[in-house]
Every structure is written in C-alpha cells, then in structure tokens.
Amino acid sequence: MTISLVKGQKIDLTKTNAGLTNLIVGLGWDPVQPKKGGLFGFLKSEVNIDCDASALLLDANGKLARQENLVCFYNKESYCRSVVHSGDNLTGEGEGDDEQIFVDLKRVPENVHKILMVVNIYQCEQRRQDFGLIQRAFIRVVNRANNQELVRFNLSDDYSGKTALIVGEIYRHGDDWKFNAIGEGAHAAHVNLLASKYM
After folding, report:
1. What residue ranges define each of the domains in the chain, with the CATH number in brackets?
2. Does residue 91 surpass a pLDDT of 70?
3. Could you give the CA distance from residue 72 to residue 190 in angstroms, rounded to a whole number?
4. Alpha-carbon dihedral of residues 138, 142, 144, 146, nearest 10 degrees?
C-alpha cells in the first residue's frame, strides 16, 4: 500500500519492509498545457521542456565527497555502482515515471549517508524556462523486487522562477534507511552548479 507524504514528512523504508534492498526512485512531471489563443482559438504549440533528474551521494556532513557521486544524464552510474540512472527523457510526455534512478542499498558505501534526488531544467537560461512551466511533479519509491510502490510525494507548491528542485532524499538512520520529502525550489542553471553547493 502506497503512503502519500506531504512536504517535510519522513518515513521509514527498511524498518517496515524487511529485506528491502533494491529501490526504484521514479520522478515525473508534465509541461503546463498551453491556453487557447491565436487565430480561431487554436491551441498554441506546447513548450518543450527537458527536465533532468539526478542523484547526489552525500557524506555525513552533507558533502559530495567526489565528483563520481553525482549520478545524472552524463554520468549514469556512481563509482560504487549502488546508484544507476535510467537515462534522459527529453520531453516529460506520457504517463508514469519520466526518469528513474535505481538504488541498491546493500552496495551504498558506509561513508554515504544521504542520496539526494534533484531535478534541473536543461538549458533553462537559454530557453528562459523555470519550474512554473511544470505541473504534477512527483517522486515515488518502489520496491524493485515486486514493483510495489512504497511512498509517493506530490510536489504541489508554486515553483515559478526556480530552475532546480530538491525533491527528496533517502538517508541512513542507524541501521535503517528513511525517506524525507523535501520539495524545495532552488536556483541552478545546471546540475553541476547545484552539486557545487554540496562540495
């Protein structure tokens, strides 16, 4: 049974799901539908927005200890192979997850305490785009062994003017792993700029 979270809420993942080790973190979004306008009320063409999901493997101090701990569209696998990116979705069209990040909790090194999930808009400055043009954004955590959705967090805030989203994190709590629904907007024209704030 899926548990729906609100912003700031935290929940146990492994403590309540014995044997849970392999996760799918699905992230999704849709472009805002254009309003009717123009000659005879025809729809304006839909804006092409390329959102990119990424994961940052952070240490106990919340720092990105090495560049290979940034898993994104150009680096699809962490150095330890515990976090793997599914690949880039250029449009966000269609139902379900737009991008997925696979996490093997057994392979996460002991010095990694958080796996932070973020989303950026590709070429946001050149295209003059921000997250005000995105709707129905969400993050969900799925048990990869049986495809059961464990947690879902729908981002319902107004993120107009923001060019990056810090969506949520999977983090250590003693011997267990938890999920934190963050849902904060940020300014970062590229994932590298966002990652640099954790170095």
Report:
1. 3-33+46-196 (2.60.60.30)
2. no
3. 11
4. -130
